[in-house]
Amino acid sequence: MTQLADRRVALVHEWVGATGGSEQVFRHIAAALPHADRFVLWKDPDVTDAGLRESWLARTPLRHSKTLALPVMPLVWRTLTRRRYDVVVSSSHAFAHTVRLGAAGHTRHLSYVHSPARYVWSPDFDGRGSGPLLALPRRALRTADVRLSRHVDSYAANSHEVRARIRRFWRRDAVVIHPPVDVDYFAAAPPADTGQSRDYLLGVGRWIPYKRFDLIISIAAAAGLPVIIAGSGPEEHHLRRHADRVGARVTFEVRPDRERLRQLYWGARALLFPVHEDFGIIPVEAQACGTPVLGLARGGLLETVVDTETGFLVDSTGPEDYLPALHRIGQLDQGRIQAHAKAFSAAEFTAKLGAWIDDACP
Predict the structure, then answer these.
(1) pLDDT at 236
(2) Mean pLDDT of 132-141
(3) pTM confidence score
């Protein structure tokens, strides 16, 4: 990417929280393009990233509701700044790929896509996009999404799953660049006194409906094993009530830091991940620790988990259907699981990112 050193470069991303898979990717892209101006719709109060330039949407009440803000996002990206750039790289999971910061034929627009907007294109995956407020504008938003992104010169997708959606929804192709995972950090064993017992199951992530933590709890209850649920989110009260209802032995770890998360991975018998995910960084982190994954045989897990070698994939959302695979977890080799995770390292991501940008910006 050395040929970009003397070009004006902009990097844009949707909203930025302190944690999250897309934020991790955005930060790695920013590190690879240190001279780029960085624009976001808004950032959460606890975000400490320096140099982020928020859009005018950040000064409105809409920043507090992604659903209500969604219909105006295409307008925001077209009125982001008067500055013009030679190269624009978007990190997009809604409408960031529609940003246009230069004249056709002069500015190269590249977009790394985490997924076409789930709220708009795949409401069946994520119930947050299926509410009545979006029912009427969804068709118009789909039309605008396609029309306003025709200027994009090159797409990259975070998985083959997302590449297929880009082809289906936008009629465009993309190269696949898997997100970066800090496999070296997670592969390093935590201090021995943290208790690597392998006697509990683990669920990690945001406590929102489509992540299916209720199913994780039900699987643990059916298996008669304790489960630790690590993360945070609006579903906490519901999940606690569900745990009581099914008689599960659940420990909730709210917002564990990175070191604590590594301890939890290393101590778990298996990571439960029964969700249709775009890619899924969490399962790769678990495998870097030598912890097998028991998950849904759909989406990104088909790319990150080698069935019967680094985990087991089950094409079902019935808790009892996971029990036969769970009983076989102990047969898997920890070294094989860790070796597989290395293919998703940050170094691999940076190399492939650089090759994509070089090819798209001669």
Answers:
(1) 96
(2) 75
(3) 0.90
Residue 295, H or E segment: strand 293-296
3-state secondary structure of 228: strand
CA 201 to chain centre: 22
Burial class (CB in 10 A: 0-12, 13-18, 19+), 27: middle
Q: Do residues 197 and 291 make contact, with C-beta atoms less than 8 angstroms apart? A: no
Q: Which of 116-130, 169-183, 286-300 shows the lowest mean pLDDT across its residues? A: 116-130
Q: Which pLDDT value is given to residue 179?
A: 96
- 56 DSSP assignment: G
Rounded to the nearest 10°, the torsion over CA 31, 118, 218, 241 is 90
Mean pLDDT along residues 322-331: 96
C-alpha dihedral sign at 302, 308, 311, 314: positive
Q: What is the pLDDT, as a whole number, of residue 70?
A: 82
How many beta carbons lie within 10 A of that of residue 139, not counting itself?
A: 10
| Exposed / middle / buried, residue 350 (Cβ in 10 Å: 0-12, 13-18, 19+) | middle
* Cα dist from 35 to 9, 50, 51, 163, whole Å: 7, 13, 11, 29
Question: Cα–Cα distances in Å, from 138 out to 93, 116, 134, 219, 317?
Answer: 16, 13, 6, 35, 28
User: Can you state the angle between helices 281-288 and 258-267, rounded to 10 degrees?
Assistant: 70
Judged against a pLDDT cut of 60, whether residue 251 lies above it is answered with yes
The DSSP 8-state label assigned to residue 190 in this structure reads: P
CB 300 within 8 A of CB 115: no
Q: Are 271 and 305 in contact (CB under 8 A)?
A: no
Token representation of residue 109: 């627009």
